[in-house]
Write a structure and sequence with these properties.
The complex is a heterodimer of chains A (460) and B (129). By secondary structure, chain A is α/β, with parallel strands linked by helices. Helices cover 33% and strands 14% of the residues of chain A. Chain A has two domains: 1-34 and 202-282, no CATH class; 39-192 and 290-299 and 308-460, 3-Layer(aba) Sandwich (Alkaline Phosphatase, subunit A). A seven-stranded mixed beta sheet of chain A has the order 5-10-3-13-14-4-15, with helices on both faces. In chain A, strands 1-2 form a two-stranded antiparallel sheet. The longest helix of chain A has 28 residues, at 241-268. In chain B, strands 1-2-3-4-5-6-7-8 form an eight-stranded antiparallel β-barrel. In chain B, strand 6 and strand 7 (103-110) form a beta hairpin. Classes of the chains: A alpha/beta (460), B mainly beta (129).
Chain lengths: 460, 129
């Protein structure tokens, strides 16, 4: 049996389907095992109830105990309990670059915060094309370790991010809509439509098919796998039994995701009233359906090594979206302005728990996917958080944040680290960069130094 | 004679050490939630002039309102008319300097009806963007 290239693909007319890691790819597999840590950066807006005075007292975000014996029960992270050994919760950090620096910036928190989350840089107040922030952590990683994959990185989002010009308080909408910055002046567009992501991953755009041809093919309700059936049969015939099973399982996963997208497109094209009338047909009206679809696409991208870096924006500042599946029916932005009232803080915490709980789906899928000598979760660093702290105050202190995954052994997990008061979140991101193999990066944003994730508890 | 000179010096020192409100203040209007607004003040003697940037009904927009008043005995009083309002509207800002250097007080929007909002303010650490 000859060695298969890690970059081998199933090729057909109008599609290119990358392959999962197979035994036949050894020694590519051995090389891949040395450095294949995936990075997922997820941003949610509006801070967390746990960053308010009442919320801190009640441990609505971070657990009371530091170290390893933490209890997630009262926190918004309780749905992540099955993955506690993979969690590194870092609390009590501030995002000072999101604070106002001048009089004209006061009040503009919602319009600049997202640009700060992954860059930890203070955005220049402008509505023009002369935007400026900093290079984001995902792009630093992609520049170093993402160049050998077909897509260096993937930028995804849930809410509409297609506004142009100024969004408010003299800030360009780009600051509100983009979290990934390839350079301090180059924000990267985010993809909202799962269909677009699917076609991007499976080479439909690179196939040269026109927009009209792609539309006609979608209407035929056929699978992308139909286009590569000959290629996959030929390959399967050359593989051993375990690789054949692995390939079959992977292609079934591709097909299953494609079916879900087709079902959404059919339902949304039926003429029935939609919850999101402005959204393209490929976008599910349900938040959790949309998020799960995006997570499954990320999983496929990682399995096939199309990319190793994803940034994912779950919300948009000032959004008043309602999340009925959370058990609370109040609008998001209004709920974040809880006025410090205990009952309203509790309602907002339910939204936070629901949002953070969606991550469990991806963690489970990553944990159940073999990768190298372990699982994809073992070889992933997933960070989740918000650049805002107490949204009722519009401040950026004690922001909600956690990391999941072992990062190929870079993170021990199973720990809650409470940083000393005033610690920049940038210190955490700098530490992650070091653990991810960018040890030569000496500073990041407003960092003052790396943070010891196994540091003794400060406070309690 | 010496006593008079000492008294003059003491008064001068006291005047010099009296806190000036000149600068930018990050003011939080305590409505249903805290709305941050910029209050920029200039103090000359007891006289205060300044600008408050009030949010409008349109998300992300604000309107600058010129204020004049005074700061005496730790108490500030400012007032200004809202240009272009549908009905004549005045904004009164009253407050007191707190021991920790912050300000706190009440803002009144006076039109046909008067609406009062509690506020606190901290001096903005102005930095180069």
């Amino acid at each position: 049996m000859s060695t298969l290239s890690r970059r081998a693909v199933l090729r057909g007319l109008g599609a290119t389907v990358a392959l999962p890691l197979l035994d036949a790819m050894i020694p590519a597999r051995a090389a891949a095992a040395a450095r294949q840590v995936r990075l997922v950066c997820i941003e949610m807006v509006h801070g967390a109830a746990g960053s308010s005075a009442i919320g801190m007292k009640k441990n609505l975000w971070a657990p009371a105990a530091t170290g390893r014996s933490f209890d997630l029960t009262p926190t918004s992270l309780r749905a992540l309990e099955p993955f506690r050994d993979h969690l590194t919760i870092v609390s009590n950090c501030d995002v000072d670059p999101a604070e106002p620096y001048t009089a004209s910036e006061i009040g503009g928190d919602h319009f600049r915060s997202s640009a700060v989350f992954l860059t930890q840089a203070h955005p220049k107040q402008t509505q023009g094309a002369d935007v400026q922030a900093g290079i984001s952590i995902d792009q630093l990683y992609a520049a170093r370790f993402g160049q050998e994959t077909p897509l260096p990185s993937l930028q995804l989002c849930i809410e509409p991010v297609d506004q142009s010009g100024g969004c408010g308080f003299g800030y360009s909408c780009v600051y509100t809509d983009a979290i990934s910055w390839a350079s301090p002046t180059r924000p990267l567009p985010m993809i909202r439509n799962p269909r677009v992501v699917f076609d991007e991953l499976f080479g439909v755009y690179r196939s040269g098919a026109t927009q009209e041809e792609r539309r006609v093919r979608r209407q035929e309700d056929r699978s992308i796998l139909d286009w590569v059936v000959r290629s996959s049969s030929r390959l399967a015939a050359t593989l051993g039994p375990s690789d054949r099973a692995r390939l079959g399982d992977y292609l079934e996963q591709v097909r299953e995701v494609e079916r879900r997208i087709q079902r959404v497109e059919a339902a949304n094209g039926s003429g029935e009233p939609r919850d999101l009338p402005e959204a393209p047909a490929g976008i599910p009206d349900s938040f959790s359906d949309h998020v799960r679809l995006m997570f499954d696409l990320q999983l496929l991208a990682f399995r096939s090594d199309i990319t190793r870096v994803v940034s994912f924006k779950l919300g948009r500042d000032n959004s008043n979206r309602v999340y009925p599946e959370s058990g609370f029916n109040g609008p998001f932005h209004n709920a974040s302005h809880h006025g410090g009232r205990e009952d309203r803080v509790a309602d907002f915490a339910r939204l936070n728990a629901y949002h953070a709980g969606t991550i469990a789906y991806l963690l489970e899928r990553l944990r159940d996917t073999p990768d190298g000598g372990g699982t994809l979760l073992d070889n992933t660093v997933l960070l989740y958080g918000s650049p805002m702290g107490d949204s009722n105050q519009h401040n950026h202190k004690r922001v909600p944040f956690f990391v999941a995954g072992h990062g190929g052994g870079a993170l021990e997990g199973g720990v809650h680290v409470k940083a000393p008061n005033g610690t920049p979140l940038a210190n955490v991101l700098l530490t992650l960069l070091h653990r991810l193999g960018l040890a030569d990066v000496s500073s990041f944003g407003d960092s003052t130094g790396a943070l010891d994730f196994s540091a003794p508890a400060v406070g309690g | 004679m010496l006593n008079v000179a000492a008294a003059v010096i003491a008064i001068a020192l006291a005047a010099d050490s009296a806190p000036s409100l000149t600068g930018t203040w990050n003011m939080g209007l305590q409505g249903g939630h805290v709305v941050p607004v910029a209050l920029v003040l200039k103090q000359e003697g007891k006289t205060l002039t300044g600008t408050i940037s009030m949010p409008t009904q349109h998300v992300g927009e604000r309107k600058d309102i010129e204020l004049t008043g005074e700061f005496d005995g730790g108490v500030l009083k400012l007032s200004g008319a809202v240009d272009g309002a549908a009905e004549p509207t005045t904004i009164d800002v009253e407050g007191r300097l707190q021991d920790d250097g912050s300000l706190a007080g009440t803002l009144s929007m006076i039109a046909k009806e008067t609406r009062r909002i509690e506020w606190t303010a901290e001096r903005l650490k102005e930095r180069k963007p």
